[in-house]
Amino acid sequence: MTYGDTTTRYRTQDVDGLKVFYREAGAVEAPIVLLLHGFPTSSHMFRDLIPLLAPHFRVIAPDLPGFGFSDAPSSSRFPYTFDRLADVIERFTERLGLSRYALYIFDYGAPVGLRLALRHPERITAIVSQNGNAYEDGLSTGWNPIQKYWADPSPENRAALKAFLAPEATRWQYTHGTDESRVAPESYALDSALLGRPGNEDIQLDLFLDYASNVKLYPQFQKYFRLHRPPTLAVWGKTDPFFLPAGAEAFKRDNPSAQVEFFDTGHFALETHGAEIGAKIVEFLTTLQPTAVAN
Fold first, then answer.
1. Spatial contact of 92 and 20, defined as CB atoms under 8 Å apart
2. H or E element: which one contains 60?
3. Along the chain (295 residues), what's the average pLDDT of each consecutive run of 10 residues?
4. CATH of 9-142+214-293, one of 3.40.50.1820, 3.90.650.10, 2.60.40.200, 3.60.15.10
5. Active site residue 267
């Protein structure tokens, strides 16, 4: 089924005194898809996907606290942990009255979204994972410097991770393993500008440290997949330097009906294969039973 007005609108929602910016498109009565971005980006990464989904779904894409155009309070005022990010997004969905929705999870959006699934499995109609990892099989050696920081959170190991925040590192994340001529430069330029805001460095370094909490939750995420068997589609850039194809295949270990599709691109797969991924998502979600995706 298709719906009427598909114009993207740019809004903010107060969540317990925190301003959360979000993009929204599609009819209010349509099934909901919640898009959760990753590091070091924002809902801007969905700018081309949203118009592809909006004729069929109500699409909502928030910026996580500390990212994009949402508030970024200092670490002394807001503890930057993945539990807290999930708290904010959970309250955000409740403030908007989202009682049932499909999840699109990417990178950091995966541990945030999967925490929501653990807390409220009845709210999740389906999961689309685009390089959103939930298995140690999917962790590449690119994680070694961060894992070193988890084992020894010394000032020296923290300082070493600042290299991940440099503009050239952000550009590399977008262009590694893909055709750079297809990657819009404003994508990594915007991310770099927002990462460079005063105080943001410590926010990101705090989240690097807390990412260890996500790996500890992997067994619980996997148990959720086994028990609840949410309809799952993994759409994966196969040359991702951080999350390996094995992480996509692993979904089928706990949920044998999971669908896995690989694309010849890198981490930010939407930059080069947005049309193909969008078509797969529409096909996947519209073939579910209507009652499975309704609000």
1. yes
2. strand 58-62
3. 88 97 97 98 98 97 98 95 98 98 98 98 98 98 97 98 98 98 98 95 98 98 98 98 98 98 98 98 87 47
4. 3.40.50.1820
5. yes
* Nearest of 15, 1, 247 to residue 140 by alpha carbon: 247
Burial of 84 per CB tally in 10 Å (0-12, 13-18, 19+): middle
What pLDDT was estimated at residue 101?
98
Domain ranges across the chain: 9-142+214-293
Which of the residues 37, 56, 176, 267 is marked catalytic? 267
Smallest Cα–Cα separation from 260: which of 247, 275, 241?
A: 247
